[in-house]
Design goal:
The structure holds two protein chains of two kinds. By secondary structure, chain A is an alpha/beta fold. Chain A has five helices and five strands. Classes of the chains: A alpha/beta, B alpha+beta.
């Protein structure tokens, strides 16, 4: 069964870039454009990996991460924070909340794929 | 306006354009933009508040804006639409993010980018001194305007 990957980012461009990067692999892609939708879709779809932007409307990525980690269902789900603002305080908060990894924007296709492969098997489509 | 602000932003422009678009950027001759208007038709503006105030503007000719969006999304765009605006906006977001990481100044917030389509005079917030850097790539030109100042706590 193909892994499910949820991307939560308010930028349609970033969601499109990630979708195109992952289109070469056998995986089911789910998208959300803000934190609240992201949380709802996570609960609905139970993804195997969540890629989460930090700065988003309605609920930011750190709040989403906190909600996920407070839910037993997502205790061990890998979550990558995706952000253009790599401020140490955000990194520290995310680490304390149990983030699995950080992908800074701009990111290269190979970087993202390699990081995903460390937590999820990705086979070519 | 401190030279480190300008350098951080210009370094970020180079880094983002190369990483995301595979386009090396060449900087031409900078100048003080006395009349505050974007040099080209499509501009993304980020307002900055806090310990630093002002704005950063990335301004593109229409064709260049579509080229940037096309490269970013690996799709051919020939007109300015919702997708090209979002792509231009995201580039500005990444540039300020990279610059912010390098500058590492506490208590500085960045607005979401607004994209405007005008070459009319607009209000550049912050410093009245606007540093403008014309930029060129193989596919065309664009410009970066930087107007920043530190808050005076005296």
């Amino acid at each position: 069964m193909s892994p499910k990957i949820l991307t939560v980012d308010d930028s349609k461009t970033v969601r499109t870039i990630i979708r195109k990067m992952l289109s070469e692999y056998s995986c089911e892609l789910i998208e959300a454009e803000d934190g609240m939708e992201g949380l709802a879709k996570a609960r609905e779809e139970s993804p195997n990996l969540i890629i989460l932007d930090i700065d988003m409307p309605k609920m930011n990525g750190l709040e989403v991460l906190m909600n996920l980690r407070n839910d037993n269902k997502f205790e061990k789900t890998p979550v990558f924070m995706l952000t253009s603002k790599n401020k140490m305080q955000n990194v520290r908060i995310a680490m304390e909340l149990g983030v699995s990894g950080y992908v800074g924007k701009p990111f290269k296709r190979l970087d993202l794929i390699e990081r995903i492969r460390k937590v999820l098997p990705l086979s070519p489509a | 306006m401190k030279v480190q602000y300008v350098n951080s932003i210009l370094n970020a422009v180079k880094r983002v354009f190369v990483s995301v678009l595979g386009m090396p950027v060449k900087f031409e001759n900078p100048y003080n933009k006395k009349i505050h208007h974007p040099s080209y038709e499509v501009s993304s503006i980020i307002e900055i508040q806090g310990e630093l105030t002002g704005c950063i503007v990335l301004s593109y000719p229409k064709e260049m804006a579509t080229i940037v969006a096309s490269e970013m999304l690996d799709e051919k765009f020939t007109e300015i639409n919702e997708e090209t605006v979002d792509a231009i906006s995201e580039i500005a977001n990444m540039v300020t993010g990279v610059a912010d990481t390098e500058l590492n100044i506490e208590n500085v917030t960045y607005s979401l980018p607004s994209v405007i389509m005008t070459t009319d005079e607009i209000k550049y917030s912050g410093n009245t001194f606007v540093f403008s850097m014309p930029c060129s790539m193989d596919s065309g030109a664009f410009e970066v305007d930087i107007a920043l100042s530190e808050v005076n706590h005296t």
